[in-house]
Write a structure and sequence with these properties.
Helix 6 packs across helix 7. Strand 2 and strand 3 form a beta hairpin. The chain has 3 domains: 62 residues, no CATH class; 66 residues, 434 Repressor (Amino-terminal Domain); 53 residues, no CATH class. The protein has a 3-stranded antiparallel beta sheet with strand order 1-2-3, covered by helices on one side. It has 211 residues and is α+β, with helices and mostly antiparallel strands. The structure holds zinc ion (ZN). The site of zinc ion has 8 residues, from loops.
């Protein structure tokens, strides 16, 4: 039997056990229950030891535990936040500028060093579900910080007025599935309607026919 390198008492092998771990966040330490891990422990001095493989598995299981905790609090997981950010081609800094929050926050949410607030979580979810909402957020930032993102979304940014009109008629439509030709066509029809000044209660009907 192996001896504890700290107190020289006998070590005990634990397979598929659990550990109550201290996890550091920007709001202090919190206890997290990590499951499905193997390790060696000393019952006398309470020290826990990992082999490199066990340590690797511990990191994976810890992330799972933190994911579970976020889900319980109805918050997006680190992976989900990263996915939303990547979906729109944003860097961590750009997402911070878009959300009008301080630097390094996104990195903390994406590594479980802190949790996003419920308000931020709602914003992220809306951003993910509603492309027009994202475009409007993009319209309110300094262009110099978002050059690459603006280039990627430029066509939709230029046609945001039309996209919003289409969404008013068809709230469930996924903008990204509409062809650019179609959006340009609706744009042309709307421009004609507006320039002929025949705006009345029927203009939505006219648009609906055009769509
Ligand atoms: Zn010991």
């Amino acid at each position: 039997m192996k001896k504890c390198p700290i107190c020289n008492h006998e070590l005990e092998k634990v397979n598929n056990g659990t550990l109550q771990s201290k996890h550091k966040t920007s709001n202090g330490c919190k206890d997290i229950l990590v499951e499905n891990i193997s390790y060696t422990k000393c019952d006398y001095c309470k020290e826990v030891f990992f082999t490199p493989e066990e340590s690797q598995n511990y990191e994976i299981q810890l992330e799972k535990a933190l994911e579970k905790e976020r889900k319980c609090e109805h918050l997006l997981t680190a992976k989900e936040i990263k996915m939303i950010r990547k979906k729109y081609g944003l860097t961590q800094l750009q997402l911070e500028l878009l959300l009008k929050i301080g630097p390094k926050n996104v990195a903390k949410w994406e590594t479980y060093k802190s949790n996003q607030s419920q308000t931020i979580d709602n914003l992220l979810r809306r951003m993910n579900d509603d492309y027009c909402f994202f475009l409007k957020m993009l319209n309110s930032v300094e262009i110099k910080d978002f050059q690459n993102v603006i280039t990627t979304h430029s066509f939709y940014l230029e046609n945001i007025f039309i996209l919003e009109l289409i969404l008013k008629i068809y709230p469930d439509v996924n903008i990204k599935t509409l062809s650019k030709e179609f959006i340009l066509y609706v744009n042309k029809v709307i421009t004609e309607i507006l320039s002929s000044k025949v705006i009345n209660q029927n203009s939505q009907l006219v648009l609906k026919e055009a769509v």
